Amino acid sequence: MMKNHQIEMTGGLGPSIGMVMRIGLMGYNCEKHKADMALHALADALKNCKKSKA
Protein backbone atom coordinates (compact mmCIF):
# COMPACT_ATOMS: atom_id res chain seq x y z
CA MET A 1 0.00 0.00 0.00
CA MET A 2 2.86 2.36 0.72
CA LYS A 3 4.29 1.89 -2.77
CA ASN A 4 1.02 2.30 -4.68
CA HIS A 5 -0.99 4.64 -2.45
CA GLN A 6 1.49 6.27 0.00
CA ILE A 7 -0.67 4.93 2.85
CA GLU A 8 0.51 2.76 5.72
CA MET A 9 -1.80 0.55 7.76
CA THR A 10 -0.67 -1.65 10.61
CA GLY A 11 -1.98 -4.54 12.65
CA GLY A 12 -3.24 -4.47 16.20
CA LEU A 13 -1.12 -4.14 19.32
CA GLY A 14 -1.12 -6.19 22.51
CA PRO A 15 -4.26 -8.28 22.93
CA SER A 16 -5.66 -7.14 19.56
CA ILE A 17 -2.78 -8.63 17.51
CA GLY A 18 -4.23 -10.56 14.59
CA MET A 19 -7.75 -9.22 15.16
CA VAL A 20 -7.74 -5.59 13.98
CA MET A 21 -6.15 -3.29 11.44
CA ARG A 22 -5.04 0.19 12.49
CA ILE A 23 -5.54 3.13 10.12
CA GLY A 24 -4.24 6.52 11.28
CA LEU A 25 -7.08 8.97 10.63
CA MET A 26 -6.84 11.24 13.67
CA GLY A 27 -6.04 14.94 13.90
CA TYR A 28 -4.96 16.42 10.57
CA ASN A 29 -6.05 13.27 8.71
CA CYS A 30 -9.57 13.20 10.20
CA GLU A 31 -11.45 14.10 7.02
CA LYS A 32 -14.05 12.13 5.05
CA HIS A 33 -12.11 12.21 1.78
CA LYS A 34 -9.00 10.83 3.52
CA ALA A 35 -11.04 7.99 5.07
CA ASP A 36 -12.49 7.24 1.62
CA MET A 37 -8.97 7.26 0.16
CA ALA A 38 -7.75 4.83 2.85
CA LEU A 39 -10.67 2.45 2.24
CA HIS A 40 -10.08 2.56 -1.52
CA ALA A 41 -6.39 1.74 -0.97
CA LEU A 42 -7.33 -1.16 1.34
CA ALA A 43 -9.80 -2.55 -1.23
CA ASP A 44 -7.15 -2.28 -3.95
CA ALA A 45 -4.57 -4.03 -1.76
CA LEU A 46 -6.98 -6.86 -0.91
CA LYS A 47 -7.72 -7.43 -4.62
CA ASN A 48 -4.00 -7.98 -5.16
CA CYS A 49 -3.47 -10.39 -2.24
CA LYS A 50 -2.82 -14.02 -3.06
CA LYS A 51 -5.17 -16.55 -1.51
CA SER A 52 -3.76 -18.58 1.37
CA LYS A 53 -3.39 -22.33 0.92
CA ALA A 54 -4.30 -22.85 4.59
Task: From the structure above, extract its key features.
single chain; alpha+beta; 54 residues
How are the secondary structure elements laid out?
Blueprint: H1 2-5, E1 9-11, E2 21-23, H2 32-47
Antiparallel strand pairs: 1-2
Cα distance, first to last residue? Answer: 24 Å
The amount of beta strand, in percent, is: 5-15%
Helical segment tally?
2
Computed CA radius of gyration, to the nearest angstrom = 13 Å
The helix fraction, in percent, is 25-40%
What order do the SSEs take from the amino end to the carboxyl end, as H and E?
HEEH
Note the main sheet.
2 strands, antiparallel
Q: Detail the poorly predicted runs.
A: none
What best-fitting shape do the alpha-carbon axes yield?
flat
Strand order of the largest sheet: 1-2
- pLDDT averaged residue by residue: 88
Q: Name the structural class.
A: alpha+beta
**Domains (count):** 1
Strand tally: 2
Would you mind describing this structure in some detail?
- GO terms for molecular function: transaminase activity.
- InterPro entries: PyrdxlP-dep_Trfase, PyrdxlP-dep_Trfase_small.
- There is one protein chain.
- The protein is of the alpha+beta class and 54 residues long.
- The chain has one domain.
- The protein is 37% helix and 11% strand.
- It contains two helices and two strands.
- Strands 1-2 form a two-stranded antiparallel sheet.
- The longest helix is centred in the last third of the chain and has 16 residues.
- The radius of gyration is 13 Å and the shape is flat.
- The two termini are 24 Å apart.
- The model has no long low-confidence stretch (mean pLDDT 88).
